[in-house]
Write a structure and sequence with these properties.
This protein is of the alpha/beta class. It has 13 helices and ten strands. The N and C termini lie far apart (about 55 Å). The relative contact order is 0.18.
C-alpha cells in the first residue's frame, strides 16, 4: 500500500511538472479563438481585440474563427470536443449560462466540458425600433403591442442569447405578446431591424448606438440600472415604463476541460493585464463596456451562479426555443 501511494504521488508530481513545462513553452504555434456568434457583434469585436493583444504579448497568432449556429451550440461544441492543450479557446457569453436550462439536450455541459479562464467585459443593452414603428417612446410602444398582440416582432441572434432573453423578460414584465424572430447571428438580426423586416430589437449598446445617432433606428430605452454614458439622453427601460427591468450582456473566455492549469493561469494573467490597462478601460468605458477580469476560481464561481440565476429567469418568463 505504501508503495502504491508513493507511485501515485510520483505520477501527480510528474503531471504537475509536465503542465508547468507546457505552460513555459506556450504558445508554440497559432491559437484559435472560436466565437460561436456571427461577425460584427460584441463577441466577435472583443475577441479580435484581445486576440491581437495576446499575439503581441505572446509572440504567436491568435486567430479568430466565427462559427455561429444554434444559439452558440455549434461553435461551443467544437471547442468542447477540441484537444485540451490551450490551442483552441472559446469566446462565450451569458448565452451559455442561459442555455444550460433553456436547451438541456445539448451535446455538452458547460461546467463539465469547458474550463473557465476569465471574464472579459459587461455591457448594457439598448432597445430600438425601426423608424416606421408609430411609437416615439417606450410607453407608446407597449400600448401599440397590447393593441396588436402577435402582430409585432423582435429580432435576436438566436435562442438563449442575451438579446432573446432580454426580449422575453421584457414581454413578461410589460405584459405584451411580441413574436420572437431568431436569426443565425447578430449581423443578420441587425440587418433585419435596419431593413424593417422586424420592428424591435434589444442589442448591445456598444454596437447599436451608432445606428441611433445616425437616425437609422429609434431608441426606446437602455437596460441597465442607470442611464448609459454612451446615450445619456435615453432613459432606462425601468424608468421609461417597465419598473424593475434590467438586462445586459457579458463576455468571457473558456477552454476545453482538461487544459493544463498552468496554461489557463498564463492566459488568465495575460488577458487580465490587457483588459485592466488604463487606456483599454478608458476606451471600453466610452463604448459602454466595463472590464470584468477576474481569477479562474472567481470566474468559475460567477458562471455557476449565473446558471442558477438564469434557470430561474427561464422558468418565470416561460421562454422556449422556437
Amino acid at each position: 500500500m505504501a508503495r502504491w501511494f508513493s507511485f501515485s504521488a510520483a505520477l501527480i508530481c510528474l503531471s504537475v511538472a509536465a503542465g508547468a513545462a507546457s505552460a513555459q513553452g506556450y504558445p508554440a504555434r497559432a491559437v484559435k479563438i472560436i466565437v460561436p456568434y456571427g461577425a460584427g457583434g460584441p463577441a466577435d469585436i472583443y475577441a479580435r481585440f484581445i486576440g491581437a493583444k495576446l499575439s503581441e504579448a505572446l509572440g504567436q497568432p491568435f486567430v479568430i474563427e466565427d462559427r455561429p449556429g444554434g444559439g452558440s451550440i455549434v461553435g461551443t461544441d467544437a471547442v468542447a470536443k477540441s484537444t485540451a492543450d490551450g490551442y483552441t479557446l472559446l469566446m462565450m457569453s451569458n448565452t451559455h449560462t442561459v442555455n444550460e436550462t433553456l436547451i438541456p439536450k445539448k451535446p455538452f455541459e458547460l461546467m463539465r466540458d469547458l474550463a473557465p479562464i476569465t471574464g472579459v467585459n459587461y455591457s448594457d443593452l439598448l432597445m430600438v425600433v425601426h423608424p416606421s414603428v408609430p411609437a416615439s417612446n417606450l410607453k407608446e410602444f407597449i400600448a401599440l403591442a397590447k393593441a396588436k398582440p402577435k402582430e409585432l416582432n423582435y429580432a435576436s441572434s438566436g435562442p438563449g442569447t442575451p438579446y432573446h432573453m432580454a426580449g422575453e423578460l421584457f414581454k413578461a414584465m410589460a405584459g405584451v405578446d411580441i413574436v420572437h424572430v431568431p436569426y443565425k447571428g447578430s449581423d443578420g438580426a441587425r440587418t433585419g431591424i435596419l431593413g424593417g423586416q422586424v420592428q424591435m430589437m434589444i442589442d448591445a449598446i456598444t454596437t447599436m448606438a451608432p445606428n441611433v445617432r445616425g437616425g437609422k433606428l429609434k431608441a426606446l430605452g437602455t437596460t441597465g440600472k442607470t442611464r448609459s454614458g454612451v446615450l445619456p439622453d435615453v432613459p432606462t427601460v425601468a424608468e421609461a415604463g417597465v419598473p424593475g427591468y434590467e438586462a445586459g450582456i457579458w463576455l468571457g473566455l473558456m477552454a476545453p476541460a482538461g487544459t493544463p492549469r498552468p496554461i489557463l493561469e498564463r492566459l488568465n494573467a495575460e488577458i487580465n493585464k490587457i483588459i485592466n490597462a488604463p487606456d483599454v478601460r478608458e476606451n471600453w468605458t466610452k463604448q459602454g463596456a466595463m472590464p470584468m477580469g477576474m481569477s479562474i476560481d472567481a470566474f468559475d464561481k460567477f458562471l455557476r451562479e449565473e446558471i442558477v440565476k438564469w434557470a430561474d429567469v427561464v422558468k418565470k418568463s416561460g421562454a422556449k426555443v422556437d
